[in-house]
Design brief:
The chain has 406 residues and is α/β, with parallel strands linked by helices. Helix content is 30%, strand content 26%. The chain folds into two domains: 2-58 and 358-393, Urease, subunit C, domain 1 (Roll); 60-349, Alpha-Beta Barrel (TIM Barrel), CATH 3.20.20. Strands 3-2-1-4-18-19-20 form a seven-stranded mixed sheet, with no helix packed on it. Strands 10, 11, 12, 13, 14 and 15 form a six-stranded mixed sheet that branches. Strands 5-8-9 form a three-stranded parallel sheet.
Length: 406
């Protein structure tokens, strides 16, 4: 058994702080949490790790990543610039970078060739270093729709159900449906266009429910957001209220999302400042204002970065997770709320709240320790001294490669 002692232990639940606390870990499982000395002394434990001036808290969760996103697809040959073997190696490196930032669980919302499943299983077997992965595999999209090249094209109800069942048969942990178009797929419907009807999205939800799985809906357009809610998806990704002329927040629609209990991952990331210079302050400010308005409406927001993409030449790196949390802080979110969005609430939204997301007995030992106090300074989450994934120390901070995350 290992005992970790620190100045503070944050459980991940609002207001729950153990001063001068300790966490006891036996193998991959948390066995006790409480004040210092409660789990016994060195004679009863294989190791006592004392971390004065540090805070222990649940491992961070990135609810929206693309470890293998490749936007270099030739729409004529329908081939990626990278082979699947090379892309899998890139994904493994991105997973290592994620965990080096303190992310112990990540939901990968789109990968071709079921590569995310291969990487997920390799990490669990100890063959690769990275966070636990919740994998959606191929996003369900129209023929030629947003991210069509990942292999999930389906145009009608029978095809939608077939792709959903194929993904689930392969071992998907959740399903992803492109309820609206996007801006990063040449020739696809744009973000403000709905790709699927409520009935079609509901078919995805029904197929996922047969295996006890959730559904994430990529939805920018107003009509797509409404259809996603009516269809009963678990999470809405982006929820940016896009129109052909830019962002237009809809208060009534936001209240509908809040009333439904649907989680929203607004994919707030740390490169918003750089995108302001390329996309324009008006566009970025409208988007961020909408995020604040969603919170004020009572929508359950979670943290996710959409890392792995490059927009306007600006790369969203997989190890830039904390920078996204700092954006929430600048928008007026409290640090305790941000930590909940990045741990307990994100775990519940991703369907893994029963095993991770909080520091409590019986849960998986997914923990981080940082110098300082993130309740006072969210930037202290960068000051990692320990990362445990299922009780295994996996931190590789300070190690980098020449390859980019994108």
């Amino acid at each position: 058994m290992r005992i970790i002692r620190a100045a503070k232990v944050l459980t991940g639940r609002p207001g729950e702080v153990v001063q001068d606390g300790e966490v006891a870990v036996d193998g991959a499982t948390i066995v006790s949490v409480g004040p210092r000395g409660g789990a016994g002394g060195p004679g009863e434990a294989g190791e006592v790790l004392d971390l004065p001036g540090c805070t222990v808290l649940p491992g961070l969760i990135d609810a929206h990543v693309h470890l293998g996103f490749d936007d270099k697809v030739d729409p004529v040959t329908r081939r990626s610039a990278e082979s699947e073997r090379h892309l899998l190696l890139r994904m493994a490196e991105n997973a290592r970078k994620l965990v080096s930032a303190g992310v112990t669980t990540a939901r990968d919302l789109g990968a071709p060739g079921f590569l995310d499943l291969a990487l997920r299983d390799a990490i669990e077997e100890g063959l690769a270093v990275g966070p636990h992965l919740v994998a959606a595999t191929r996003p369900i999209t129209l023929t030629g729709g947003h991210c069509w090249y990942m292999g999930g094209e389906a145009d009608d109800l029978p095809a939608i159900r077939r792709v959903a069942r194929e993904n689930l048969r392969a071992g998907a942990d959740c399903l992803k449906v492109m309820a609206s178009g996007g801006l990063m797929t040449p020739g696809a419907p744009p973000s403000w266009v709905r790709q699927y009807t409520t009935e079609q999205i509901r078919a995805v939800v029904e197929e996922a429910a047969t295996r006890g799985k959730g559904v994430a809906a990529h939805a920018h357009a107003h009509a797509a957001i409404r259809s996603a809610v009516e269809a009963g998806v678990t999470t809405i990704e982006h929820c940016s209220f896009f129109t052909a002329t830019g962002h237009r927040h809809d208060r009534e629609l936001a209240e509908l999302v809040a009333a439904s209990g649907t989680y929203v991952c607004p994919t707030v990331h740390g490169v918003t400042g750089r995108l302001r210079d390329t996309l324009g302050a008006e566009v970025l400010d409208a988007w961020l204002h909408s995020v604040v308005a969603l919170r004020e409406a009572g929508v359950r927001l979670i943290a996710g970065t959409d890392s792995g993409f490059a927009a306007q030449g600006v790369a969203n790196r997989t190890d830039g997770y904390v920078a996204g949390l700092e954006v929430f802080a600048r928008l007026g979110f409290g640090n305790a709320e941000i930590i909940e969005m990045a741990t307990a609430r994100a775990a519940d939204a991703c369907g893994v709240g029963a095993v991770t997301g909080t520091v409590e007995p019986g849960k998986r030992a997914d923990l981080i320790a940082v110098r300082g106090d993130p309740l006072e300074r969210i930037a202290d989450l960068r000051e990692l001294v320990l990362v445990l994934v299922s009780g295994r120390a996996v931190t590789q901070t300070g190690v980098d490669t020449v390859t980019d995350s994108v």
